Amino acid sequence: MVEYAVYAVPGAQYAGITLARPSGDIETPATTHRYPALLDDIQQRHRQGPCFVAAWHQHTVRIDDLKNDKRWPNYRRDALAATSIESILSFRLFASEQTMGALNLYSDKPYAFDEAAEEIGYVLATHAALAWDTVRREDHFLSALASRDIIGQAKGILMARFDIDAVQAFELLKRLSQERNIKLADVAHQLTNLRSFSDL
């Protein structure tokens, strides 16, 4: 997606994905160059910048001339010192309680992005957000499926060991989960890895 964004958006030379969390932690999981990750590090240091704002507060942020943009002075100073970037275009990708995301495009030239670039970037960001959501849902589904399987195995072990039915085995797992204050799937995983019940 980031490689295609550089190809498709007029004026874009580099692109990256920013993930931002409420704690202020920022991650750059995909990039076409070292600059996007470097600029994300600067944003994390100062808790300010266009990608951060696009992810948390606005859908689109555009900087036409970083040298003369006054919105984030600490970010601007360090970004200009560390890179040759002068134009930035950031789009929100998705929002959740835990993580926000932004697609960011960069250029070494001032006024690199126009309205057409903004429109194309917005369409790409929308597609990227849909793809990201699909991947996250699939990951959650596979995780839930794996948890269900491990819980089923643990129930079978308990049923065989204590001569109880499936409902009783599940209730026993729930009780262990509550007593130890850990997730049911984690209790089940521990149980399936035991060499003897005295280890439980």
UniProtKB/TrEMBL annotation:
The keyword Glycoprotein does not apply. Keywords: Kinase, Transcription, Transcription regulation, Transferase. The keyword Transferase applies. It comes from the Bacteria. Residues 131-192 form the ANTAR domain. SUPFAM superfamilies: CheY-like, GAF domain-like. PROSITE patterns: ANTAR (PS50921). This is Transcriptional regulator. The lineage of its organism: Bacteria, Bacillati, Actinomycetota, Actinomycetes, Mycobacteriales.
